[in-house]
Specification:
Yope Regulator, Chain: A; 6-stranded antiparallel beta sheet; 6 strands; globular
Length: 129
Amino acid sequence: MPTWDEIKDFARSKYTLSRDEDNWFSLVWDYDAERTQLISVRRFPYLEQDWIEFRTFVCKEEELAPRVALRKNADFAIGALALDADGDYCMIYNAPLATLDPDEFTVPLNVLAAVADKLENEHSAKDEF
């Protein structure tokens, strides 16, 4: 069973962190086409255990119709679109820390970054991290 510090150490060893705080960190995913995707990873308690949340920006609320967002959720292998308090669509994926091995940490980073960047490019044609 990994600890939060072990997860952070693993992330530090594999990636360059753009922010590194006690209960969260972030990293920037770079693509060949000069696009980037910022992914935040945070620890939070739920049901008496620690969980990890992966979160990355997709687009503004007005750039993606709610019905389209809900329909897209059915196609994702992992993660889901969510609307945050600022009116931004984000891709989110949560996993219990107790079962998070390196693959379970790396796969969501890869998948969320790729899916979010594709959606961002399709719906806003911008690159806002």
